[in-house]
Amino acid sequence: MALPTYASPLERVWHWTYIALCVAIFVFLIAPIIVVIPLSFNAEPYFTFPEKMLSFDPDGYSMRWYDTLLTFGMSRADAPRDASWWADAWHNAKWVNAAKNSLIVGFFSTILATVLGTLAALGLSRPEMPFRRIIMAILISPMIVPIIITATGMFFFYSSACVNTGSGLGRLLAPMLSNSGCLANTYLGVILAHATLGIPFVIITVTATLIGFDQSLNRAAASLGANPRRTFFRITMPLILPGVISGALFAFVTSFDEVVAVLFIAGPDQQTIPRQMWNGIREQISPAILAVATLLVIFSIALLATVEVLRRRSERLRGLSPA
Amino acid sequence: MAALDPHAAVVAGASGAAPDVTAAPLTTADGRPLARALARSQARARRRAFLLVLPLLAFVIITFVIPIGQMLHRSMYNDGFAAHMPQVSAWFHENPPGTQPDETAFAALAADLKTAADDRTIGIVGTRINYDVPGTRSLFTSTGRKAKSGFQPPYQAALVEADPKWGDPQLWRAMRNASTAYTSNFYLAALDRTRDDQGKVVMAPERQQVYVMLFKRTLLLSLLITFTTFLLGFPIAHLLATLPARKSNLLMILVLLPFWTSLLVRTTAWMVLLQQQGVINDILVWLGIIDSNGRLQMIYNQMGTIIAMTHILLPFMILPLYSVMRTINPSYVRAARSLGATSWTAFRRVYFPLTLPGLGAGALLVFILAVGYYITPALVGGSTGQLISNMIAMHMTETLNWSMAAALAAILLGAVLVLYWIYDRLVGIDNLKLG
């Protein structure tokens, strides 16, 4: 990026303008994410920095909005904070319940998307795969089709996808379905929907890992007497694992951040963090939202760091970049 | 793309006819013709590969393709009126459009209203007509209550006496339009068109024309957002591609962090920044650029939608641009300079054309994502920054006109699929990269 020695004065001016421009764009990218962090410690219920915060007066800062996250929705928020208070928070606090729901849905949808997606990516990367292009297009489409359309379709499908809870199969499935035996307003419904939305990410990351995969390693394992299953678990899996894990993280984040499908197909029991945020923003936006936002930013920094480490490890394993 | 895809070539070769072997065919060790043995083993390999993909394909078809299909069906099917008002629907089929409703029509209507009221389906019927003529749901339910005790002939007089609205030609037109379960009326409505007394397609009344305007706005705003992401993304991608690896990896984190941060968090952040009592206005007032009474309205309008969506979609422009720019050999530009080109000419004639594949990929992706955006416009768009997705959501959750929502969604889906197809042709979905 260094300026060549033969640069004219005009080019020098342009060079520094260009650097300044890039800095400004980086500020545009990062500032909104950074600014919510200090504001979440605001002692006042405003979205701006009061005098006290700017002069770093400790009185201007407080943890009250983080406290609100715990107490909001509790039956006895003012009681002394003993074991029963924490039990109350665990069972009744809205944000705590939302976090629990988000984790449950995220966990199961990620498992589903990752297992099915990895298998499919293995098939899609084989040179002899028939109809590769059209199948790939179908499997990636949940990422491309606007979420509002997907959610609309799922709404119709889930309210009609019902089983007779009296029949044999219905009795088996009944605990996972709503009272009327449908998929709408159930955890299972949300998990299936989120798995569908996460699948494209798993496919993309795992097929990208498999591009550099040396098929002769599998043949070597087979020639040394390993059966296909042993070959997969001892040779293929360890090599593609970084890609699988980043795919899984992408799928988890997709579920963890998804609100539209939840709004359309979930019931009041499946309140997730994004849905709770959505309600909070639409009704009365309070700095408690910023406290959640701050926690989520920290969460995404941790995820980003994990994915970066995995990516570098994967490139090293596959010999794409020097150690 | 097909020519570049080695898999396609191999599959095509494998499924082609076996080579012509006339004289002494080659055989495998156990005596089978080699060509047949090869074909069989290749078929087995194809089957194996397909079996690995099959579970996921089935899953996606059930949870995604079928729901979309159901939505498309819903966009042209609504039996809310036809199924519960059979007699009057039959009258509409027997008489051509434009026929004045006669005593038989009113008799059929009275009979249907009574049955519907007894079966408690009158609400469904009223809701269906209410889509076309607002305020008629209560007309159906209230007349239904009276119909329970039975109207006396002449029915026309009796019904018009019960409520003069029953003589309204607009209502009869709406009932005729609803009298078949399969209908193109929702698509017509989605394009601001309706049917007149003769059944001809005409423009809807001016004050009801909203959808075409919204489609246009969605298109324009998406183009604008694609352009702003290009303006902001190009310098950043160039910087990242030309810096030494260590520095560019560090700066890349600044691009990827927004990418990994929750959409709702980013939208909330912009609400905080852009509000009239928000951080940016405060800074401007503090700097003395604007007066405290003259605070800028930067959110809850189109500007809010544009700023927030540009920020959210920027990484989708930067990443493909970056991956193309990284492969451009810097000696091309140097060669152009040494041959006497100014830096501007070298950029315009040499560097920029080489970035076009990345630019095309990024622009298409941003545009595809922008036309279907819902959350951000809903939260920061106010009334002028709403896109077509917001109208779909409104019909789904507020007016409950699901067929209308489905028709709008189907049109949007068609547009997105065309763009997706172009993307696949030009870029190839295999080349989609995530960070």
UniProtKB/TrEMBL annotation, chain A:
Keyword Repressor carried by entry: no
Keyword Nucleotide-binding appears in the UniProt entry: no
ABC transmembrane type-1 domain span: 99-307
Alphabetical list of PROSITE patterns matching this protein: ABC_TM1
Stored InterPro entries: MetI-like, MetI-like_sf
GO CC terms in record: plasma membrane
Membrane topology (UniProt): Multi-pass membrane protein
Main location per the UniProt record: membrane
Bilayer-crossing regions: 18-41, 103-122, 134-158, 187-213, 239-265, 285-310
Alphabetical keyword list: Cell inner membrane, Cell membrane, Membrane, Transmembrane, Transmembrane helix, Transport
Similarity-based family: Belongs to the binding-protein-dependent transport system permease family.
Protein name as it appears in the record: Polyamine ABC transporter permease
Organism of derivation: Paracoccus sphaerophysae
From TrEMBL, chain B:
Organism: Paracoccus sphaerophysae
GO biological process: transmembrane transport
Family to which the UniProt record says this protein belongs: Belongs to the binding-protein-dependent transport system permease family. CysTW subfamily.
UniProt protein name: ABC transporter permease
Protein topology in the membrane: Multi-pass membrane protein
Coiled-coil ranges from the UniProt annotation: none
Residue ranges annotated for the ABC transmembrane type-1 domain, each copy included: 215-423
Record-annotated membrane-spanning stretches: 49-69, 219-243, 250-273, 306-329, 350-375, 402-423
Predominant subcellular localization, coarse grouping: membrane
Record bears the keyword Transmembrane helix: yes
PROSITE patterns per UniProt: ABC_TM1
Cellular compartment(s): Cell membrane
SUPFAM superfamilies: MetI-like
InterPro entries the UniProt entry points to: MetI-like, MetI-like_sf
Domain of life: Bacteria
Pfam family, one: BPD_transp_1
Keywords, alphabetical: Cell membrane, Membrane, Transmembrane, Transmembrane helix, Transport
